[in-house]
Amino acid sequence: MTTSQKYFFFLFFLLMPLLSESQALKIQHDLVVAKDGSGDFKYIQDAIDAVRVFLPQPITIRIKKGVYKEKVTIPSTLTNIAIIGEDSTVISYDDFSGKGKMETFDSYTLRVLGNDITLENLIIENTAGRVGQAVALHIEGDRCVIRKCKFLGNQDTIFASGENSRQHFVDCYIEGTVDFIFGPATALFENCVIHSKANGFVTAASTPNWVNYGYVFKNCKLTASSGVDKVYLGRPWRSYAKTVFINCEIGKHILPEGWDAWGKAENEKTAYYAEYQSTGEGAKSSSRVKWAYQLSDSEAATYTKENIFAGTIKPTANTFWIKPSHLGITGKVDTSYNNYTAYLNSKQSHPVTTIVPEKPLATVSETYSITYGKIGNRALFLDVFSPKKKSEKPLPAVMIIHGGGWRTGNRTQHYQLARRLAELGFVCFTPEYRLSTEALYPAAVYDLKSALRWMRANAKTYNIDPDKIATLGFSAGGELSAFMGVTAENPSFEGTNGNLNYSSKVQAVVDIDGTLSFVHPESGEGNDSKGTSAATYWFGIPKKDNPQLWDEASPLYHVGAKTPPILFLNSSVDRMHAGREDFRKVLDQYKIYSEVHTFADAPHSFCLFNPWFEPTVKYIADFLKKTLVKLIDK
């Protein structure tokens, strides 16, 4: 090591504690920005710069009315922030391409690089005028939601960027002249007004060829200024551009041919431009260019929020994802993990293992294959196990989540556990959820939270107390159970499927051998050289390539003051409870009740088999009586 290198490392280790301390002093609570000095900050960028990086819980920055002439950036290190304005909150700037050495991508008024950012009730404008490219909003963040905002500009008003980014625009007004919605992102525009101020092109998508959707406009209204009469719906900024208009009202300013190939014949072969049931004078499908499409009913039905935002992995030759088969999303059911295969595996290392007989109980009522939600045409089912003896008061409920590495397994895995808990006075629900062969993280979380909201919506039907619900899971299901507990009502993990007016909060959690952190030193997930771990398939990207995503999916990342009581039941396989003690330290800090019971010399699948099954049932029942039942009795 050279002298300069030694000096660098000396300074790094000397300053590291100070850097950590300064970050700890950063703000992680709601803020107010006001020009008149009545808030926490006078300038928006000052408020953003003061916020802690990678926020563990969402915060809101409220911006009081006024015109803020600022060039604002939300960096990639900031997540979970909602920026909400009043009716006349304006963020304004006037940069443009060609101003000094500035290019299009430097000309923004507001640039959003962080994930899970919400913008609401803001007016974002670029006032440079008709001088060429002048961006109002440059947005690269993933899972961003933009509601009730106005975007004012001319050419290139919104740059919806990021190859893997997903953005949802709702009830927005967007105006411009040429290519005023452009870029490679997957973006859904719902109930928006799209206003053309001059003859030109509405969209210029540059969708990568491996992305499924691109730009989707649903129930939007396309309008124009007086005298504007020659506007195209879109042209491909790059080959393979994808843009679809569904149930939109299209004004007469849209040309009959609808679409332009940007002077390149090959674009007619690669671009995917389509419409479905558009109305208005500009929606005459018979005059459209021959290479555009009119969707069938069945094709249009696939354009759901869940499908559009499911995400797609880029098949790059320089990473693990070399072959399409390695993408993991096969659409096929993986049956490799079930109770019998788990039994054979456990029997090899623990000869005392015996199968728990699967049989109905005389005291328990069973109802199968109830539809709790739909993703397009895909129905999601659950089963219910409840005491036959009628109760005068609502009963506590337990959602039981199966394991299988987020890739295999099914909801029948814990039927006998559901029966035993129902026999003891709990109403148990065993939902299925989409596995990684069908959809990547966080689809499973969306599904389970949808199931939980469904339980509350149907509380009277199944005689459950909607305020006394626990999640219980084993292995991958244990991680999901804990994740459900620590992210209650976090909008980033709610999804959009069903009963959104009900809460996803739970009052107790049981985690049976489910990891608490994917990036903890104790974790074994994603550390293999081939990149074939169960979690790698679920996230769709190796840990080394996106450690932030792996951290975000860890319950340890979100644990805090609102986490419910939790029971940890563990095997003797240490890596299966990675992060547990750090997790409990946070619980202790907030005086939140927790228990740990470890079965010495037990296999990972211990809870499914004798001699560990009945002790497992007892620990769960005792814990739930201390938490849910005790709360009910109060």
Automatic annotation (TrEMBL):
Residues of the Pectinesterase catalytic domain: 30-309
Enzyme superclass (EC): hydrolase
Gene3D superfamilies to which the protein is assigned, alphabetical: alpha/beta hydrolase (3.40.50.1820), Single-stranded right-handed beta-helix, Pectin lyase-like (2.160.20.10)
Pathway field: Glycan metabolism; pectin degradation; 2-dehydro-3-deoxy-D-gluconate from pectin: step 1/5
Keyword Hydrolase: yes
Keywords of the record: Aspartyl esterase, Hydrolase
Residues at the catalytic site: D179
InterPro entries with a match to the protein in the record: AB_hydrolase_fold, BD-FAE-like_dom, Pectin_lyas_fold, Pectin_lyase_fold/virulence, Pectinesterase_Asp_AS, Pectinesterase_cat
Entry EC number(s): 3.1.1.11
Pfam annotation, one family: Pectinesterase
Domain BD-FAE-like: 382-575
Keyword Hydrolase: yes
Reactions catalysed, as given in the entry: [(1->4)-alpha-D-galacturonosyl methyl ester](n) + n H2O = [(1->4)-alpha-D-galacturonosyl](n) + n methanol + n H(+)
Entry's family note: Belongs to the pectinesterase family.
Protein name in the entry: Pectinesterase
Organism, as annotated: Arcicella rigui
